[in-house]
Amino acid sequence: MSYKNFPMVPRVIFGRGSFNxxxxxxxxxxxxxxxxxxFLIDDVFxxxxxxxxxxQLSYNDRIIFISANEEPKTSQVDKLVExxxxxxxxxxxGIIGIGGGTLLDLAKAVSIMLTNKGDAKDYQGWDLVKNAxxxxxxxxxxxxxxxxxxxxxxxxxxxxxxxxxxxYTPFDQVILDSELTKDVPKNQWFYTGMDCFIHCIExxxxxxxxxxxxxxxxxxxxxxxxVFLEDNHSNIESQEKLMMASWHGGMSIAYSQVGVAHAMSxxxxxxxxTKHGIGNCIVFNQLEEFYPEGVKLFKQMKAKxxxxxxxxxxADLNDDDFNTMINIALGLEPLWENAxxxxxxxxxxxxxxxxxxxxx
Length: 360
Ligand code: NAD
Ligand code: ZN
Hints:
Strand content: 5-15%
Bound molecules: nicotinamide-adenine-dinucleotide, zinc ion
Helix content: 40-55%
């Protein structure tokens, strides 16, 4: 038995308004005048000087606004890397991702691909990255995915949706400023928040569970319950709690694994482009059989916040479509093994999976 030796984010700032310390954090990391900082920012902030006016651009530093309407693609990473190489005199001093999981994952992937040959798709998998990434900073503006703390960057490639999992993936610096999450629309707040809740349930009920994962998972689960089921806190407290829930949820799966909902949600996302948060909710809503307690709580939270999920998402799919989703989902072996144990193939047959998808 060999235990995982996984890297953690070495530096983190937490606090309302801590975003104001960004310039001071970056200054000593500048390698030269010709080595810019590149800010990859969710384009919801494009016309929002409240955020961008606090970023001091010097020399050839650049802001690149990116839409989070679609999840990151390997080809998108390759294009960004090429653009940055062509327009920068020297290798960038740093890549700073500001946004949700989409922007955080793009920042991680770009920082890796700036120092590694070939295409991003070549690195989808486990421990394929050879060289250390460019210095990279993650600044979440919505809470739940745990992408700010994780060792992966989830990308959709030409033939799979799979992360670049490596010791070089985690951020060198994270800034947790809950104020940045204040304008998240309610539905999105719920979907991305439920990603964290589902991380906790899948980790805490999985066969990979150990005391390390359990400690973080329980903490994150309690925070999710407070945020989504209790009213005795201010908006600010709630935003701060969800930010910490996301972090701890990410830490919990770092040493365990996710499960059925994530495997099936990856299938939906690959075929239909369904985004991670809402996709997880659509799937989880139908998984009583596997997560009875978790699904019961999920339904309470959904009702409390008047969230209605899309229905009949799979209604018009043909057999080829189902097979595509089933192949993507069943390909994620560690997730199934965590959820259902060594004999998972006997429990989760393609037929069973198809029946479940048909309910969605
Ligand atoms: P997201 O980044 O896709 O953003 C969702 C929506 O919220 C977008 O419309 C975005 O513009 C908007 N938004 C974000 N911050 C906002 C703000 N402050 N105000 C107003 N609108 C705001 O959302 P997400 O759920 O955080 O991320 C999903 C992505 O994260 C997926 O691509 C998924 O694969 C990835 N993910 C990665 C990991 C990991 O460990 N790397 C884990 C889970 C999910
Ligand atoms: Zn997730």
